[in-house]
Design goal:
Oligomer: single chain
Number of strands: 15
Strand content: over 45%
Strand order of the largest sheet: 7-8-9-12-14-15
Largest sheet: 6 strands, mixed
Radius of gyration: 18 Å
Distance between the termini: 30 Å
Helix content: 10-25%
Structural class: alpha+beta
Length: about 230
């Protein structure tokens, strides 16, 4: 996916999880919306290079959105709206191929399930495949980790996928790593051991656990390759 109206800047501070203070190259200080509620402490460091999108609207409190961060020379896309679009692109291009379906005949986003929703429902000759997509921005020594902070919502999604598989539907947890140079994916046991355990139990129950890496530039991100999953 391609972004328009992207400008280089420097990150100054993050007053709360929804906003960041940045400085444009002309010296102007701006308030940016952060579309990522994770901690991202290893990314948002004072003085680091970032790229921001100018998209003014009467319905927004700020005309700027923080899109990309330079982490020691590696570009990281921090747009939490991107992973669902990247998943669809990865499936459409054949980068990510569900093992349970011989072909994908239909893709439905944001499908209601009881009182909640799952990101995608894929349909093929073999039946339905429910999928929840998670964006990953935490990296340590070439390993992508999720989550970067405890997430009860994410834990609930994994448990729901496991239940759906036990009821006869197919299920998948897909992790989209929003950076390059990753060798493997692991659940972040140190941050949330319950999530790591739930992910292992889900795979044992037949839930597909997949991970896709992306190519990132300051103004674009696209799915590119599969990453080995180690649970």
């Amino acid at each position: 996916m391609q972004y328009e109206s992207i400008f280089p800047a420097r990150f100054l501070a993050r007053p709360n999880r929804f906003t960041a203070l940045c400085r444009l190259e002309d010296g102007a200080d701006i308030v940016c919306h952060v579309r990522n509620t994770g901690r991202c402490a290893e990314l948002f460091r004072p003085g680091c290079r970032v790229w921001v999108q100018h998209n003014p609207s009467s319905t927004r409190k700020t005309a700027w959105t923080l899109i990309t961060v330079d982490k020691d020379g590696v570009l990281v896309n921090v747009d939490s709206l991107a992973p669902n679009k990247l998943f669809a692109e990865a499936v459409t291009k054949g980068i990510l191929v569900p093992a349970s379906l011989s072909r994908v005949e239909q893709m439905r986003p944001e499908v209601k399930l009881g009182s909640s929703r799952l990101d995608w429902q894929l349909t093929g000759p073999e039946g339905r495949l429910w999928c929840e997509v998670k964006g990953v921005t935490l990296e340590q020594d070439g390993t992508a980790l999720f989550p970067d902070a405890p997430t009860l919502r994410g834990l609930g999604h994994v448990e729901t996928l496991r239940r759906l598989r036990s009821e006869g539907d197919f299920a998948m947890a897909a992790f989209l790593v929003q950076m390059e140079g990753i060798r493997r994916f692991r659940p972040n046991t140190a941050a949330q051991p319950d999530f790591a355990r739930a992910l292992r139990e889900a795979r044992e129950a037949g839930v597909e656990i997949v991970c896709c890496g992306c190519r990132v530039t300051p103004d674009s991100v696209e799915p590119a390759y599969l990453i080995p999953v180690e649970l």
